[in-house]
Amino acid sequence: MADEKILPLVEHLVELRKRLIIIIVAVVIGMGIAWNVSEQLLSFIERPLTGKTYLSDLKVRVYGEMKKRYPAAYERYGLEKETRVPEGDRKLNYTAPLEPFFIQCKIALILGFIFALPVVFHQVWRFVAPGLTVGERRLALPFVSFSTVSFCAGALFFLVVIWPVIINFSLSYETEGLQSWFSLSAYVNFCLRLILIFGLIFELPVLTMLLSRFGLVNGKLLARNRKYAVLASAIIAAFHADLITMFVVMVPLYLMYEVSIWVAYLFGKKRSAVAA
Fold this sequence. Notes:
276 residues
C-alpha cells in the first residue's frame, strides 16, 4: 500500500525534473541571445538619471496651470518646488573589478528568462495538464500566449512608466549638500527585481482566467470586493511623493483588478456548469 502511494510521488518528481531541465536549457539559450542586447537595456534604465522624464514634464504643465488658475493654493502648498527638475549628467559607479561583468550576466539572465517565457509557461502547463480534463487541456495555447504577453507587458510598463517615477522621486532629494552617487549593482538589481515583480503583477488576469475556468472565483465575487482593491491600491501608492506620482502608480494597479473582473466574467464557468 505504501509503495502504491510512493510511486505516483516519484513519477511526479521525475516529471518535475524533466520540466525543470527543459526550462533551464531554454533560459540558458535565451541568455546567450540576450547577451548581445544587455548593454542596450542597461543604457535604457540609465536614462532617468538625467532627471528629464515624462513625469517632470507633466508636473511642469500641471502645476503651471494651477499657478495660473489657483495662485493662492500654488503658493500655499509650495508647488514651485515640485516643478524643479534635478537635471544633470549622472553616471553609475562600481567598486569591484568584475562588477560590470557580473551585472551584464544578471541582465542577460533576466532577458534570457523573458525570451524563454513561452517555453517556461508551456512546461508549467505540461506539468499540471495530467490533472485537467480534456476540455481544460485545450486552454494550453491561450494560457501560454496570454501569460507571455502579460508578463512582457508588465515588464515594459514598469520600465517605461514606473521606473522614471522612482528615479525622479529619488533625485528630488538632491540639494547643494546632498548629491546622488548610485552604485551599479544596487541600481541594476533594484530595477531587475521590480521588472520581475511587475511582470508577475500583470499575470493576475491570467491567474483569474484559470481560477474562473475551474470555478474557484467568479466576476460577481471580485466585483463585490472592489472597495478592498481600491484600498490596497491606495495604500501601495501612498508611499510615493505627491499627488501626480500616486495617481501614476495607483491607477494601473487598480486597473489590473478591473481587468481581472472582466476576465472572470468572460472566461468563468456558468453556474449550471459548476453545479454539474
